[in-house]
Amino acid sequence: MAKQNPIDEAKELQKLLVGYAKQETVEPLLTLAKYLAFGIAGAVLTFLGVMFLGLGVLRLLQSETGTALDGVGFLSLVPYLGSILTMGVLIFFIFRAMSRATRAVR
Fold it and tell me: What is the rounded CA–CA span in Å between residue 85 and residue 83?
């Protein structure tokens, strides 16, 4: 076997170290960034869905109860309480599904 000169050995060592550093740092960070991007996108879309559903329920209750509750004082809050209750139930089911998914992964 022919001996390599020290410069070639140093270049090979540098190439090996750079490859190892990329493998152990850059690739996991890129994978983490991908999961984080999907998680943030999912959270934003879930938030928008819950808010639009709550707004839709509020408008539905306001249009259906209409003037029947307007002059009765505190009963005009019924549509708002109904939409808050609807959003609360939906958020409860979302968290329940998330906790099931977390338990399934373990």
Answer: 5
Q: Which residues contact 78 (CB under 8 A, 6 or more apart)?
A: 61, 65, 69
| 96, two tokens | 């329940």
65 and 83 in contact (C-beta within 8 Å)? no
Look up residue 100 and give its amino acid. R
* Tokens at 20, concatenated: 């190892």
Give dist(CA 62, CA 92) in Å, integer.
24
Q: Domain boundaries in the chain?
A: 7-105
Give the residue ranges of DSSP H helices in 66-77: none
Residue 29 one-letter amino acid: L
Q: Where on the phi/psi map is residue 73: left (φ > 0), alpha (ψ -120 to 50), or beta? A: left
Kindly report, residue by residue over 15-66, the tens digit of the pLDDT.
999 888 888 888 888 889 999 999 999 999 988 988 898 899 889 988 887 7
From 87, 105, 99, 102, select the one nearest 46 (Cα to Cα): 87
**Which SS3 state, helix, strand or coil, does residue 69 take?**
coil
